[in-house]
Amino acid sequence: MSILRLENISYGYIDGNNKRMILNNLDYTFERGKFYSILGPSGSGKTTLLAIAGGLEKAQEGNVYFEGKNVNDIGLGKYRRNNLSFVFQQFNLIPYLTAVENVVNVMEITNNQVPKPHYTTALNLLDQFGIVKTKAERSIYKLSGGEQQRVAIARGLATNVDLIMADEPTGNLDTATEQEIIKILRMLAKEYNKCVIVVTHSDSIAGLSDIQLKLVEGKLTERM
């Protein structure tokens, strides 16, 4: 079932006297329960596309629809807060909070219904991703890179969203940990019926996705 639709998305930069279009009348529809990867060379517009799809950036032309509603009508702030979650290469965790506090923090700002007490719910969620209570109550700095990324994913799920976007989520991790994180993201699509979209340079990551997309000349094409 469709969850996210990109319609005639265009975006460009001024380069000298010319405007370089990195997204050019791009159309694509993403569905629940599927794990998508988006590949493309550096500078092709992958991160910009994810930012537009996630309401962090506005398209210069075209529209983004979440569950049939234009995200501008939903309100970009409300869309980001209640309907999707980002997972970044740098984790973007709050450094002065513990792992569990990072998860509780997002529970307290979303408008979505989240089971209470939040602290217990956060501990249970982290435990599902291998972060036991003793680690969950540690400073973020005392966790490994792979553990911090698991916390970031748990934080993303904590607001009960159905759309998860990740920008090079394993770029700072070793190969073994990379595979573990990608398996978690795939599990979210298959077992939790989430729509997971991952921007990556890695063919091995793309190989684990349900649908591989290539961003070429401003358009998304499916790799066969």
From TrEMBL:
<keyword id="KW-0067">ATP-binding</keyword>
<protein>
    <submittedName>
        <fullName>ABC transporter ATP-binding protein</fullName>
    </submittedName>
</protein>
<keyword id="KW-0813">Transport</keyword>
<dbReference type="InterPro" id="IPR017911">
    <property type="entry name" value="MacB-like_ATP-bd"/>
</dbReference>
<feature type="domain" description="ABC transporter">
    <location>
        <begin position="4"/>
        <end position="224"/>
    </location>
</feature>
<comment type="similarity">
    <text>Belongs to the ABC transporter superfamily.</text>
</comment>
<dbReference type="InterPro" id="IPR003593">
    <property type="entry name" value="AAA+_ATPase"/>
</dbReference>
<dbReference type="InterPro" id="IPR003439">
    <property type="entry name" value="ABC_transporter-like_ATP-bd"/>
</dbReference>
<keyword id="KW-0547">Nucleotide-binding</keyword>
<dbReference type="GO" id="GO:0005524">
    <property type="term" value="F:ATP binding"/>
</dbReference>
<dbReference type="InterPro" id="IPR027417">
    <property type="entry name" value="P-loop_NTPase"/>
</dbReference>
<dbReference type="GO" id="GO:0016887">
    <property type="term" value="F:ATP hydrolysis activity"/>
</dbReference>
<dbReference type="InterPro" id="IPR017871">
    <property type="entry name" value="ABC_transporter-like_CS"/>
</dbReference>
<dbReference type="Pfam" id="PF00005">
    <property type="entry name" value="ABC_tran"/>
</dbReference>
